[in-house]
Nucleoside hydrolase (Paraburkholderia madseniana), 321 residues
Amino acid sequence: MSKQKVIYDTDPGVDDAMALVFQALHPDIELLGLTSVFGNATIETTTRNARFLAGRFVPGVPVAQGAAAPLKRAAPEPLAWIHGDNGLGNIAIEAAPEAALDARPAHRFIIDTVRAHPGEVTLIAVGPLTNLALALADDPQIAPLVKQVVIMGGAFGTDGVLGNVTPAAEANILGDPDAADIVFGAPWPVAIVGLDVTQRTIMSQDYLASLRDRGGAAGRFVWDVSRHYEAFHEQSAQLKGIYVHDSSAVTYVLAPHLYTTRSGPVRVLTDGIAVGQTIQKPSTMPVPAPDWDSRPDSTVCLDVDVPGMLALYERTICGTL
Ligand code: BDR
Ligand code: CA
């Protein structure tokens, strides 16, 4: 497989960091840049974390700072009880070497990079979708120039689960529902990797310990960064392990055959008690639905080969691909 050019739009975030290590070590991914966004922590914290992660795992790859708040709403509070006070599970963050901070805002970095590589760039977006919506607003013509947009976000109820922040909404979509509805309506190929598959994919405590023992410095980092996150899962969901959210979006890029998908346009509710809910009209559904019918199809992940996903991550971290 030839290398896939990727811009990683991220709000690190413990699972964002685990997904960055995955991309850094997989030989089929060429990271062109990281773009930060508010979400798991403030934009100052997520940008600092993105620079730390890029500097450590993909030296030479730049970071561009993105949105501090959603398009139309106030910035949310940092999720310290999930991702730690520093957004990275309270691990020590060394001061150097940090990745260079690109002078452009994230959405301009995305536009310029897509235009420099037409048809080649995959956007992996694992935070609120504000930077992508700003890129579309600034330069709508980039949409058909993007190879694909792979998003961790949303939930479509296959296990009866529609959200992890409210009964109806997943965190990244609720982070900026207006942006998400714009992104799902743009003429670029979108794949959505939501809670339907990310909450089925669990890294157990034994699995993480094995990465620690067999994965060298990267495995040790994945272990260290996930201690606080694992405690959160045990406390909140009585889970002896962690859900695999953002690394599932990376897996979809590398091995889409591991996912069972459904095609059809997706809308996001932007107000009311179910704000942030994602609703797909399956393309097989015959009844008219004007609020969906004028929009492009998205690919929604409904099921996943869990052992296949976990094996791909493990082999990447342990260098046994
Ligand atoms: C998503 O929300 C964030 O807290 C995680 O980093 C992940 O991207 C899961 O709902
Ligand atoms: Ca994230």
Observations:
- Residues 43-57 form the longest helix (15 residues).
